[in-house]
Structures are given as C-alpha cells and as structure tokens.
Amino acid sequence: MRRNNSAGRAKHRWSNPRQSYHPHRYRRHDHKSYTERYDQEEPQSSPNAGTSQSTSSSISSSAFQNSPVPELPGFYYDLEKNRYFRLLPGHNNYNPLTKERIQHKEMECKRLKLLEEEEKQKKKTSRAGLNSSLVLRKRQLGLLSSTSYCRLVHELKVNCMQRMKVEITSPDSSVAETNNFKLIMADAAHERIFTVHDMEHGGCKYGIVNLNGLGKESLTVEMYDNLYFTNRKVNSVCWASLSHPDSHVLLCLMGIAETPGCASLLPTSLFSNSNPGDQPGMLCSFKISTAWSCAWCLNPQADNCFSTGLTRRVLVTNAMTGHQQTFGTNSDVLTQQFATQTPVLYNGCRSGEVFSIDIRQRSRKGHGWKAVRLFHDLAVTSIRLLQAERYLMAADMAGKIKLWDLRAVKCVKHYEGHHNEYATLPLHVNEEEGLLTAVGQDCYTRIWSLQDAHLLRTIASPHPSSKDSIPSVVFSSQLGGIRGVPGLLMAVKQDLYYFSYNSDDHIAPR
C-alpha cells in the first residue's frame, strides 16, 4: 500500500507542470492553441481599443509577460523556432543571451512591422464606422456642432499622417550634423522651436528653428545656432516672456564639481537672425542648487516671476529684482506649471503628490499653504493645466496618465497605453484639436482623444529604441504660425521628421 501511494504521488507530481518542468517536454509542445486563446482574450480586456491600441499595449508589455508559453528559469522561448534555449552563464560565450537583449529584439521586430504597415499608406480609422464622408454628412445635416466636427476631423487626420524627413539648414557652418536632439519645445505661437543638442564631447548646445519654411512645397527649416554651449546637463527648459511674448528661454542647469547649478535667462536675440526685429535682450543667471523643473508665470499679479523645483523646496524668483520666495516641501519637485488666471503654481513631486501654491502668500513650511493636493502612486513627471483651469492632466513613472477635476478633487479619466518606468517625459495637450500626445520610454508616440481617452494612434520611432533615442515631439494645427501647416514634428537622433495631414481628404479641420 505504501509503495502504491508513493508511486501515485510521484505520478501526480510529474503530471503537474507547476511543480516540475522539462525543456524538451515544452519544446515538443504545440503553442498554437495558446496563441489563439491569447488573441481572443486580448480585445476583451480593452473593449474600446482599436487596432493601434492593441498594438501599443503588446509593444509596451514585457515579452515574457505576454509569452503564450510558460516561462522557465534559466531558459527563454523562441517563438520562431518553437523551442526553449538555455540562458545559463557560460553556455554561449560568443553570443551571450540576456532577457534584455531578447526583449529588445522582439520589440525591434514589432517596431519594424509597424513602420512597414505605415509605409503602405493605408487610411486608418480609430473607431468603427468613423469616416470622412459620414462626418461631413452629419455636419451638413446639423447633427454635429462645430466643436464636435472639428474634433472628429482631427481624429481622422491624425490617423492618416504620413512621415517625411525635414532638411535642416544653418547659416552657421559650426552646427555639426552629428549632434543628437535632446529635446524640442515650441513657443506659444508655434512659429519657432527651441532645441537642445547633446554634444559628442559632452555637454549641450542650443538653437532655435524657424518653422516659417515648413509647408507642402518645402520641407526645409533653418536653424539659428548661438556661440555658447555648456558642459552641464540641462534639466528643464521653458519659454519666458520678459520684454515681450516668448522673448527669452529659461534654462535650468545642473552643477558639476565646485560649480553650483543655475537658472539662466537667454534672450532669443542671442540666436543669429532668430527674429530680425529683436533688440539685444537681458541675459541673467541665478545661482541655485540642482533644479529638476522650471515654469514662467504669465499672470500680471506675479509679473516677471519664474519658479524652479528643487530638492525638497520650491523657489520663486523675480527676474527683474532678484527677490526670492522659498516654499519647503517633503519631496523633490519634478514638474511645474503656473495658472494664468491666478498666480497659483502647480507642482508634481517624486513622492507622487501634486499640490498648488498661491505665491501671493508668504513663504512658510508645512502643508497649510497647499490649496489643492492630489496623489499618484509613483513620481509625477509631467502636469498640464487645461485652458479653463478646472482640470489638470498628470503623468507618473508607472505610465499612468490621469485627468483630475480640481473642483471635486478626483480623477475623472484614465489614458491607457503610455509606457514609463523612470524617465521624466512631458505631456502635450492640444485642447482646440481635442488631442493628447505623449512619447513613452519605449520610444512610441501615442495620441489620445481628450474627450473619451480613446487611443487614436501609435507611432513607431524611425530609429531603433534605446534610452538615448527617445523622440521629442511638437504637435499643432498651426506649425509655423497662424497660416502654418498642421501636423506633428518629431526630433530623434540627428533627424527631424514632419508627420503631415493627408491632403487627399476633402474635409478641413476648420
């Protein structure tokens, strides 16, 4: 009896795949049924997602989490060869395999596949039954308001955007083509973009690109470089309106060795011919400790003031008088934005807290001066106030993007699909077009509908994904000014790309 029981237990133990495994057993196993079941279950987890949303969710997830076969310690499963391979140290000295390399290879295959689909130039739609003829017909029958019509047309146009490379010219021959874009940031009128380049020998260089030449007949823009560069890391940048709108650029630089950090105001007149009407502007610098973020105030009650988010404090400085206010916090301030209707500053912290400060009150410690307090689970990397200043958009290092109602102090919408783990990545809100744009740490650019949080499109980077090649983007329906062209600008590596609206459609967004 004892022998039979032990044999039964052994048989049960080897029949349970959770208690034991054998690579050859799974090697012969047909994974087709797993794949079919996975494909059938995936749409149920996100009923409102379109084709682009399902693609983005699979891209942003780990290859091992989405694998249709069990993960075995010390092995990885190759879907193409339908077998397991060992990952033990010393097994393959000439081509060592790691989970990171395998995951990168799989993501690269998906990126190339998505680029291939986009090159076919097939018109896509993010919603079933939504097309230009239907939208136009509803508008003619009076079933759509002008606002809804504009929003739906932009959705259609966004899904038909086509990528084209922009040629960058410069009157200054010292601009090296090998310098990689670190970020691009458009001014309020979307006539110019400020650029930060990573230098080959270390440090950063700045420039301003004039977008007036961007159009259907010309894909050439002119970059105006300055004679200055810094060997310090640029942590944050924003446009500043000191003498006139967007007259300066505010830079927060990290300190190195014995050199302290600083916040510098650079007049755009430093950049040759950036605006021929500009007079030499004021160039000033304020010594500060390491600043993670900065923001410029446009409210007349705090004229010429800017804020810097530091380690466990917020520093508000008057650029003309040098007067400073300090507000102590419990965490590093990673992102900031001023309201325009009132002199209130919103801050997002490493702790996950979002709070506001009325800068008219005196500096003091504690929580008594925090007018609004919101909370995320992880560090908040970007915040954006909507125009009416009743809602605030916030993104964190868990990849969560939430829309908060500031009056009810609660989250009212979630925008799914964004990918972030530790990077400080910005959000781009275009309320007039009804769009939200964000670039993930996986180097995919995603565009959502502001109204219902529907993922409209996922755009793959033209370059292989890596930590130093995360694209920086600008979206506007008026690139180049009031009579500018609509579309998306993407800077990645040394290249600048323009995603233009498809001109084949016979409806206009305005």
UniProtKB/TrEMBL annotation:
It comes from the Eukaryota. Residues 1-31 have a biased composition (Basic residues). Residues 45-66 have a biased composition (Low complexity). Residues 1-66 are annotated as: Disordered. Keywords: Repeat, WD repeat. SUPFAM superfamilies: WD40 repeat-like (SSF50978). One of its GO terms (cellular component) is Cul4-RING E3 ubiquitin ligase complex. This is DDB1- and CUL4-associated factor 4.
